[in-house]
Specification:
This protein has 428 residues and is of the alpha/beta class. The chain folds into two domains: 206 residues, Rossmann fold, CATH 3.40.50; 174 residues, P-loop containing nucleotide triphosphate hydrolases (Rossmann fold, 3-Layer(aba) Sandwich). Strands 3-4-2-5-6-1-7 form a seven-stranded parallel β-sheet, sandwiched between helices. The chain has a seven-stranded parallel β-sheet with strand order 10-11-9-12-13-8-14, sandwiched between helices. α13 links the parallel β12 and β13. α2 packs parallel to α3 and α6 packs across α8.
Length: 428
Amino acid sequence: MSFERLGLSAALLRAIADQGYHEPTPIQQQAIPLILEGRDVLAGAQTGTGKTAAFTLPLLQRLQETSQGVARRRVRSLILTPTRELAAQVGESVRTYGRHLPVKAAMIYGGVSINPQIEKLRQGVDIVIATPGRLLDHLGQCSIDLSAVEILVLDEADRMLDMGFIRDIRRIMDRLPKKRQNLLFSATFSNEIRRLAADLLNSPQEIQAAARNVPADKISQVVWPIESRRKREMLSHRIGAENWRQVLVFTRTKHGADRLSKQLVQDGLAAAAIHGNKSQNARTRALADFKAGKIRVLVATDVAARGLDIDRLPHVVNYELPHVPEDYVHRIGRTARAGQSGHAVSLVCPEEMNQLGAIERMLKRRIDREVIPGYEAGRQAAQRPSGDRASGSRPSGDRPSGNGPSGDRPSQRPARRRRRARPSAATT
């Protein structure tokens, strides 16, 4: 099937051709005609399936078709996303596909000054892409009017619920017109998502573009068994030995991301970290440098798992396995996008075997193991004197923080050692 057969306008087809796309993905084939008909849609779509274009393209056309008779520019479409990175990605798609249309869009999210956003809204926009927290800030300051919204999109709805945005979403919905088109996109359909859909959507058409929690076919997955204390050593060695030029590495915590990026720099690798405690300018700069090849390794927490869109990203590394098995799919979905191939590696220590088992049960398959020569599990332990596990020397700067998996269990820590406080969660 071609994009021409989906009923899109000439201006949108021209923008699609500019990007070199010829055939719509399954989610685009199913969602675009329904949205063009004005139907409410509940769509299940994994990351990397082209879902952003699946709602952006018909949304732009719907606004174009109903623009006649609009006296002045008002917010007519609202797109809610869970993270700043995802808001920026969606905003870029709106600009890309709307380049030949007379539409204006604004991205509003936290981590940056609110004043330029207020000025942009005053000038008039058709589409707002927002994170819930910052949108409520604007509503509180009366700097945005949502009374003319015709189309509401909730992107990555399951992630928003996971991040505790349900109350914010309901407060925002109270400020919207009752009569509107609603589109809800989610990677999973939990009971909470079903309840939200029942409140939000009007006789929705449900579509599922692909099997749930299944990575793209072109992602090669492998597990490297390794002791937790040697993970950093192995990662640095393999990046150099394999000459990996662009690597996205996931850790569980913000502190762990900062610590690992500093250690990789000490190992001679250009690296940076992005997470919720970083300012938006710092996150944007690090991502831009990574895309430009100035940074070889980008270390991220799960705040980036659904918000990064990097063309031809070859390697994703799970330095620590996620607590939630579904997040594994979202992490490795940063590679093998738009039909490309990709490589996903997980550094798994004995303490993470239960998490690995949960991921494999979700995937309904066993991930191949590859033992790297020189890093066999237990090799270093066998060379140390008995009883030296807790007091043995560690590589400089590589002491466990208590935030990630390590052989230094809480019961083995000296009583005088205090637990480090976790950084507070950053708002969007």
